[in-house]
Amino acid sequence: MKKLVLLVLLISAISCQKKAIVDYSIISGKIENVSGELSLNSADGSVKKVLAVSDDGTFSDTIRVDVARYLLYDGKNRMTVYLDKGNTININYDAANFDNTLLISGKGSEVSNYILISGKKEKELRGEGTSLYLLEEDEYKQTIEKIKLASEEILDATTGISEAFRTKERRNLNYAYLSQLSIYERYHAHYAEKPEFKTSEGFLNELDEVDYSNEEDFDFSQSYRDLLTSHFYDEAALIAKTDSLEEDIAVLKSISKSKSETIKNSLLFEYAKYGITYTGDFEEFYTIFMANSTNEANNSEITKSFNKLKSVAKGQPSPTFENYENFAGGTTSLSDLKGKYVYVDVWATWCGPCKREIPYLQKVEKQYEGKNIHFVSLSVDKLSDHDKWQKMVGEEQLGGIQLFADNSWKSSFVEEYLIKGIPRFILIDPKGDIVSSNAPRPSDTKLIDLFKELNI
Question: Relative to the CA of 212, which of 267, 298, 367, 413 has its CA 20 to 30 Å away?
Answer without folding.
Answer: 298
